[in-house]
Structures are given as C-alpha cells and as structure tokens.
User: Fold this.
Amino acid sequence: MQSNLAKSLYLGLAALSLGAVATVSTTAQAASKAKIVSSKTLKTDATKRNVQPNGKNALYSKPGTVKGAKTVASKNTMKKLASSKKSADYFRAYYQKTTNKGSVYYKIVSMDGKYRGYIYGGKKAGTFAGGIKKASTTKSAKMPANTTVYFAKPGKSGVTWSAPKYTQYKATKSVKDTTDYANDVLTVQSAIKKSREGSTYYYVTDATNSNVNGWVYAKGVTSTKPADATFNDATDVKVNFATTDGKTVATGTLTGLTDAAGKVSTAKGTAVGASATSAANNDWGKALLVGTGYKYSRSDSVNLTALKNAKTGDTITLSVAPNAAKSTKVDFYATSGTADLSQAATPLTAYKTGTKAASDTVVFPAASDFSGIEGQTFAASDVMTYLNGASLGTLYTPNYTKAGGSTQYFTTYKLSSALNGTYGSTTKAFYVGTETAGVSPAAATTATTTTYFANSDAK
Assistant:
C-alpha cells in the first residue's frame, strides 16, 4: 500500500512538474512577442505614399510580430501583387506603428480596397522598406498633336477623373455624365500614362464650362468635331485666327448669334455684328489659341471691324500676334527610375559655394536658358534635348561625408525623363542618382546661380 501511495505521489509530482514547465514555456513565448511603442497617422502628401509590395513579407491584421496578428494576404499573394500588371494592385500607406524591437509596420490598403492590413516596413520610420517600396503609378506621356478635342462618346463612359482610376486611392469621377457637354471644346493641358497598363490619359479643361475638367482616357476624346455640332450658316460665323502674313494658326466658330433685335438668327446673311463682338472676347480667343504661342485681342482695330461686319454664314479672319520669347524655369528632381514624375521624386538643390554639400546639392554649369514663344507647347523630348545640349544631362554633387565618418562621397545624377509643357511655365526634369566613394568631378567646378533653375533656394 505504501508502495502504491509512493507511486501515486511520484506520478502526481511528475505531472505537476510537466504542467509547470508548460506554463513557464507559454509565458516565455508570450513575453517574446513584440509590443507597439509608437503609433501615428501618416500626414505627408497622400500622393507620395503610394507603395507596392515586393513579395518579401505577408500582410497581417496587426503588425506581424505582435500577439494576435493574423494573415490577411500570404507572402505568396503579396508576391503576385508585386508583379501585377494592374493599377488596382498598388497600395496606399496611411498609418505607421513601431515595435519595441525597432521594427516599423505600415498599414496599407490596395487601390481597389480589396486588401487592407499591416506590412513590415523596415527599421527606419518614415521610409518604405522591408516588404514594400515607393510606387510611381503614372509616368509622362506624349501630348497629342491636336490639343483641341471633344468627348468621343458623350454619356456615362469616358468621363473625367480626379486621377486616372486606381493610380490614386479613392480617385473619383469629376464629371459622371458628359452628355450635356457633347459639343464643348476641350483643351488638353497635360498627358500621362499608367505605369502598369500603359494606357494614356489627358488632363482636359473646358472654357465654356469650368466645372468640366479632369483626367480622361485618351480614347475617350477625339479631335473630330461632333456631327451634331456642325456649322449652322443661319446662326454661326466661322473664324480663322491668322498672322499678319496670312498664316492661319487656329480656327473657331461663333455660334447661336443674334440679330439687331436680339433674336437668334434664322437666315444666312443676317447681320450679327454686335452679337459676334460680344461673344468673341479675349477669354474665348485665349482658349482657342492654347499651345499655339499666339495671342488675340478683341480691341485690335482690325478685329473690331471684322466682328462688326460679321454676317451669319460668313468666315471672318481675326488677327493674332506672336507672344514674345520667354525663358522656362526647370525644377530638377531625383527619382528612383524613369517613372514619374512628381509622385516619387525629391527636389535637387543648387549647391552654393562655401556651404556644406549633401547628396541632393548639385553643381550646375553655366548654360543658356530654355526658352521659346510664350504659351507655345513643347514636348518632354525638347526639354531633354536642351538639357543634354547644355551639359545638364549629367550632374554631380561636391564631396560630402556621412554622419560619424570621414570617407568622401559624391552622387552622380543622370537625366532620365522630363515633362511636356508650355514655354513660360515651370517644367520638371528627373534624374537617377548613383552614390560613389572618391573625388567628385564637381570639386573643381564653380557653382553658379542659374536663371533656368526653378528650385532657387540654394543650400
């Protein structure tokens, strides 16, 4: 009996001992889990927080090393999203958490809202690393040869957006139905294309209805005037804008003109001088001359005479004058690739002799201005041709050191892309930088204050 009692006591103690070990082990595992020590909402420009996964980390309901974190999207799923050809699979980062182990996690949401959760973002707050990297959702595109366009199929498709769909989180339709604007003249102001799909979008404005603007799919507009907006010789007057030597630079139509009694004309040949003069104001002419480099003035005596004598069905000629040549300022930016533009780029600054150099302070050689007829359009390729020809295709920083070190570094910036624009308005050029240890080629170069440099706050 004593033997059985001893055995029972021994087995009981053994079970208790195993239970204690299990309890200690569980407690130790719980203690090893990371804890959140910092949380904050990201408040930097939202368009600069577009990211894409690289497939190295999964997406979790909480920071991955925190107790209770569940997988939202596996590492394999994130890898597929990383190589996706759809803009919908880009993400927007909007919240940041840091653990007591120094790991940074970002809360991100896919552009289509399908995936939302936390992903490892490296060890440095404010920097997208680890399982994600910055994304350029759009890149520059060529402007159309004709910047005067119309909605190709007025209605609820081919409408304008605040940004091309899924290139920005919660991009919205600016105009949901274009039916009422079927005959409006639209002006293309800029062009971009989706980085993944490659589809081109134009930013358009409407001189007749200022609320009609935004990004529209390139195939959603046409340079062909709508059939139902054809010339009506009983109410309209055609207009040719011409230079003093007779060169026509643009055309337009004055529509729905009224007779001397203030009633809409009903017959060809009706005198509509007062109505035509009132309609052909400077803003009307400016909208039709966008991108030509010419200006129109209603008060010009030749123009006033032509308008005063206008009759329905006529074609009249209005005189225009060339704008003066004007310098175009250039903003210089560092980017991680040939993609755009202003979303994933940081400004480069002109180095000022005698000040401390850094990886973003470049030396600019003396060069002539980038100039042309004010208001005339230029292509991105024109900017790049100018920069390369002016020895601005490759830029260098002076030597600099890093915190706590004595090694001399310099960064070489190579021109990668530029923007379309109009002469007289600031444009942008983008460079990819490579850091090197050694003596900078800019060491013996005199820093200059450049007239073409728009980032004028030199360091």
In short: The mean pLDDT is 86.
